Amino acid sequence: MRITWADIKKKVRWVAYWASEAYNAPYRGMVARAKREQDDLFMLLIFSEMMGVPNPATYYTLELQPIMLEKFHEWHKRAGMEHSPLDDFRCC
Amino acid sequence: MSAIVPALIGMILIAAGYFFYSKFIAEKIYQLDPNFETPAHTLRDDIDFIPTNRIVLWGHHFTAVAGAAPIIGPAIAVIWGWVPAFIWVIGGTIFFAGVHDFGAIWASVRNQGRSVGSLTGDVVSLRARTLFMIVIFFLLMMVNAVFAVSISNAFVATPSSVIPAWSAIVVAVVIGVLIYKVKVPILWPTIIGTIILYAVIYLGDQVPVSLPETFMGLGAAPQWIIILFVYATVASLLPVWLLLQPRDYINGIQLIIGLGLLFGAVFIANPTMVAPMYNTVVPEGTPPLLPLLFVTIACGALSGFHGLVASGTTSKQLNKETDARFVGYLGSSGEGLLALVTIIAVSAGFASLGEWQTVYSEFGGTIGISTFVAGGSQIVQDGTPLSREFAATLLAVMAVLFAGTTMDAGVRLQRYIIQEWGTIYKIPVLQNGYVATFAAVGACLALAFGAGGTSGQGGMEIWPLFGTTNQLLAGLTLLVISVMLVKLKRRYIFTLVPMVFVTTMSFAAAVYQLWDLFTSGSYVLMALDVVVIILATFVILESWSAFTREKKAAAASPG
Questions:
Q1: Domain range spanning residue A26?
Q2: Given A65, B59, B94, B521, which is the most exposed site by the fewest CB atoms within 10 A?
């Protein structure tokens, strides 16, 4: 039986898939949660002015608000609030 | 007798346990349903709940539960002869551990992927839940203390393992940074990292490192204990991707290579079991086999810690309910095999009965990782081209890495518990991560030294107490499963008998140790033992009350 480069590449990809799963699967949740916490902190910075916390970079963070719309919606749902808690920022 | 005989019989029995007994439990008792939608699907959030391939999940479960404990426990227990240890490891794996781990996954999957601790509150009672939390806290404290003592003993006995064990941390950090920050595909860091790891084992072999015999009044072993706790403090505060995750991965690779190497060497070298089948002339001070055997070997036969892993993470990633059998039962079977190979290493790795008796001249003491290393390395030398020194370093590094990872994960978990207490009881200072970590490490350090670690000779006295607590936790998990089965009007005898057995043995062992610790003057451990006895009493009373209540309720309800 002839072994071609394609066969070897396929096998290597197979090993890499299993190695990557073995590496990531046990900690996927922990890493994702840490990332989410960082994202939440970033969101707090963006919306800080609306909550009465002075933010010298408001001029720039204001631009980011529409981009954060979807994440903001996810966040208030996750926090147990049916609708947006900010009067000036109604996402749903 | 040839060591191949117990190796083969053990492997065949464990395989039969999986193919027949676990099938019976899956079909008739837990009644797994391939069409049941698991929490990984119904509650999928791609964070905790995510359907995962069963082989990957098995690997995760197996490496999370298999650590240094199934090496240390059987190594100590062989003092009563290798047959009792063999019977408990094989019987325990088939009828106790498999059913327990598998059952914990099933119970959790049927309850929205909740942990056994949280389920205890609903299924049994709120009192039982509090009990569960206290048992976990003590278990973690003992895990950290006992593993620190074990690693320090291993470093003193095998100085060649010092450089490789600490280098593995550097290798792990480099792998972590390469994968997480530089985004390098996993294959190259794995291959190069593994090669470096084994090259460093060779280097360690050439350059053994020993600490000064005394430094500020402390011997070499206690010095190591302090260094290890400083390490655990720092490691537990680092992000998981930087150290814990790559270290776990490296350990998994090492475990598979180590297990393969040892079993392969046993079959090639065909050593003789020099240890007595049943030791009638045990050294003075050895406690009686009954009940101590059943707490000396916890992991490897039955371990409550597995229930935490099974219901904490594994159940949330189960793709199909029927995968629970493969992941849970085979996960504990893997650990049973590690315990089996340890029994063989410490029974057949010595030249003669006389040499074995010299090593096993006292109960506990420095027996543990170093005994496994001494016996295992002899078998590897006889069965492979590797030198005994290299094999000894390799096995010591494997065991030390396991114990080290458990330590930093243990300190991390204990920090979470203390922080949670800070929130519940409104003590802001305890909510601080650093304060909580120092409190956790302080408690463990006090226990390690209080347990005799200062002398550098003992410290393993705490081992049976750790086993007792671990078994109590297993008893509580089996209680949850049994009560669930009563509620479902199914046969509960298969989980109730193991539950009654381990709880009784744990209680009896704790009572026996009380007198033993009093006479030896180990008052710190004695105080801890009193707590364990109180906990055991409550577990028994709680089980009795929950069980009779649910049986009455089930009898009164129609259907």
A1: 5-78
A2: B521
Could you tell me which of B340, B327, B342 has the C-alpha nearest to residue B18?
A: B327
pLDDT at B453: 55
- Whether residue A29 lies inside any domain: the answer is yes
- Nearest CA to B203 among B171, B162, B175? B162
Residue B242 CB burial class (10 angstroms; 0-12, 13-18, ≥19):
middle
How many structural domains is chain A composed of? 1
What pLDDT is recorded for position B456?
47
To test the contact with chain B by mutation, choose from A20, A28, A31, A74 the residue with the greatest count of B C-beta atoms within 10 A, namely A28
Instruction: Name the one residue in this structure whose structure tokens are 């010299």.
Output: B358
Q: Running DSSP on this structure, what letter comes out for residue B214? A: E
CA distance B469 to chain A (A): 26
* Other CB atoms within 10 A of residue B521 CB: 9
The residues with which B272 forms a beta bridge, in sequence order, are B2
For residues A54-87, b (16+ Cβ closer than 10 Å) or e, as one string? ebeeeeebeeebeebeeebeebbeeeeeeebeee
Residue B406 phi, psi dihedral angles, 5° rounding: -60, -40
Q: Please state the φ and ψ torsions of residue B13, each to the nearest 5 degrees.
A: -65, -40
The CATH number of residue B391's host domain is: 1.20.1730
* A85 domain residue, yes or no: no
DSSP character at residue B301:
T
SS3 (DSSP) at B1: coil
Which amino acid belongs to residue B181?
Answer: K
| Range(s) of the domain holding residue B498 | 4-556
Spatial contact of B483 and B551, defined as CB atoms under 8 Å apart: no
A17 in a structural domain = yes
A·B CB contacts under 8 A: 61
Task: Report the pLDDT averaged over residues B519-526.
Answer: 82
Give the span between the Cα atoms of B414 and B412, in whole angstroms.
5
What ipTM describes this predicted complex?
0.73
Taking only the tens place, the pLDDT of each residue in B16-70 is 999 999 999 999 999 999 999 999 999 988 777 889 889 888 887 887 777 788 9
C-alpha span between B112 and B117 (Å, rounded): 13
Distance from CA of B48 to the nearest CA of A (A): 5
> Looking at the complex, does the CB of residue A27 fall below 8 Å from at least one CB of chain B?
yes
CA distance B42 to B39: 5
Q: Is the pLDDT of residue B458 over 50?
A: no
Tell me, yes or no, whether A84 lies in a domain.
no
